[in-house]
Specification:
Helix content is about 40%, strand content about 10%. By secondary structure, the chain is α/β, with parallel strands linked by helices. The chain has a 6-stranded parallel beta sheet, with helices on both faces. Strand 7, helix 12 and strand 8 form a beta-alpha-beta unit. Helix 6 packs across helix 10 and helix 12 crosses helix 18. About 45% of the residues are buried.
């Protein structure tokens, strides 16, 4: 049924940058189609968002809901990037307390749809009585969702032991060897709220929504998306990969980028590997040093972005001089560039001198790397979807995973160096480099992305109305 009137759509992402930005991208697309968007988050997260293009400002409103204080959550914290992983359960408890102000807002507004992710398990019981439709929006891919399984598995407590996540589930009906390593499961458990587990949250959200959308496409995950429809018994409407656009030439006069570009311009084509572990990966000092020694032993040119994050072995300052081994920068100064804090990742990956990407395997980072056909050196950040992504890309021969101990996640610098060299220059890595380069046709295809976004918008527009029952 074709709705001619414009819709009022609420966006309600989880409090993590990796969720907040993909939700904003979808908001912009919906706004361009003339729909009214209320993007709801906490004040600090909204203040960090980039400025909207002027033509969208009348269609997208930002609604700030202050985050209620919670015992155990440091004052002023509003996102996962500000805390170590073992504090994330407190952030989830605070997020759950947004139920009351969110309910108040949607009761006072004429809302047709709420687009949300897997954390607000209480949303169906709020929205359904008000006649508001729900879309569960996964910023992850279909591989993750199929591994976690249908609501009956999520809510039935079928996998109560960590070891049960290290095997391929029975419901996977295509050839697959993708599962977590034990150290990844144990690490992720630190961010699970004991009162309401991640599986409970996901199961209730999927049960209560009208349909599920996700950041993927059938060109990359045909079997997984097909199976997901069967598992969920409701429509699966992929959003596409949402490949990010490079900043316009107008703001290229960035001093930091100019210095990086000059350094990259002096290097050979596809000779440099780029290292970034995301904004939220916490490694021990020992692991960070092993990684650094491996990067050094590769003897290849590199750019390494090092962020201030709390280390997991007691030090909560995360100072970069502790993360990087003493003397490292001096020893690699002839071929390596260490960047502290933020870096223009998209511009670096787009540069012709970059050939590989050592990544923590977050889905957004993978999309950015494959958008430019960069071969992947896979080092799972051991949280959320990252381990499954590493196995998926290793299996598709688009990247090579650094071997690690399955129980404690340990690894050697020699294996890091060997994997880097194989991906970047050894003859046996040539098929992998070719496969990654070919991925630009999917991951860098804006026309394909827009086709999926158009289909998503059409599905919402043509869905039977719930708040307004007139035909």
């Amino acid at each position: 049924m074709d709705r001619k009137e414009k819709l009022h759509i609420v966006m309600f992402p989880w409090l993590a940058y990796g969720h907040i930005m993909p939700f904003l991208e979808v908001s912009k697309f919906l706004g361009q189609k003339g729909h009214q968007i209320s993007y709801i988050s906490t004040p600090k997260n909204i203040s960090r968002l980039p400025q909207l293009p002027p033509h969208l400002s009348s269609n997208i409103s930002f609604v700030e809901l202050p985050l209620p204080p919670i015992h155990g959550l440091p004052p002023g914290v509003e996102s996962t990037s500000e805390i170590p992983i073992n504090k994330v359960p407190y952030l989830k408890k605070a997020y759950d307390k947004l139920q009351a102000p969110l309910t108040e807002f949607i009761k006072a507004s004429h809302v047709n749809w709420i687009i949300h992710d897997a954390v607000p398990h209480w949303l169906p019981q709020v929205a359904t009585p008000l006649g508001i439709n729900l879309v569960a929006y996964s910023i992850f891919n279909a591989t993750l969702l199929t591994f976690w399984g249908p609501p009956s598995a999520l809510l039935g407590g079928l996998r109560s032991r960590p070891e049960s996540f290290t095997v391929v589930p029975d419901w996977i009906d295509y050839p697959c060897n993708i599962a977590y390593k034990l150290h990844e499961v144990l690490n992720h458990q630190q961010c699970v709220d004991e009162d309401v587990s991640d599986t409970q949250r996901g199961g209730l959200v999927i049960q209560g929504c009208q349909f599920v959308t996700l950041r993927s496409c059938s060109e990359f995950e045909p079997d997984q998306i097909r199976l997901l429809t069967k598992l969920y018994q409701k429509p699966i409407v992929p959003l596409g990969l949402l490949p990010p656009s490079l900043p316009s030439n107008d703001d290229k006069r960035d001093e930091k980028w100019e210095a990086i570009k000059a350094w990259l311009d002096s290097k050979g084509e596809k000779s440099v590997f780029y290292v970034a572990l995301g904004s939220e990966v916490n490694l021990s000092k020992e692991f960070m040093h092993q990684l650094a020694f491996g990067i050094e032993k590769s003897k290849l040119p590199f750019i390494w972005v090092v962020r201030d994050r709390p280390l997991v072995d007691g030090d909560q300052t995360g100072h970069q001089d502790m993360i990087i081994p003493p003397g490292f920068e001096e020893r690699v100064s002839d071929r390596g560039l260490v960047l502290k804090g933020w870096a223009p990742q998209l511009r670096i990956l787009a540069h012709a001198s970059v050939g590989g990407f050592l990544t923590h395997c977050g889905w957004s980072s993978i999309i950015e790397g494959l958008r430019f056909g960069r071969a992947l050196i896979l080092f799972s950040g051991a949280s959320s979807d990252q381990g499954l992504n590493a196995r998926l890309l290793h299996g598709k021969k688009i990247g090579l995973e650094i071997e690690r101990n399955e129980v404690d996640g340990s690894f050697t610098s020699d294996l890091v160096a060997k994997t880097i060299r194989q991906v970047m220059m050894e003859p046996e890595g040539e098929p992998l480099r070719a496969n990654a380069w070919a991925m630009r046709d999917i991951f860098g295809n804006e026309e394909l992305s827009n086709k999926y976004l158009d289909g998503f918008v059409r599905f919402i527009e043509e869905f039977a109305p719930s708040t307004d029952q007139e035909v």
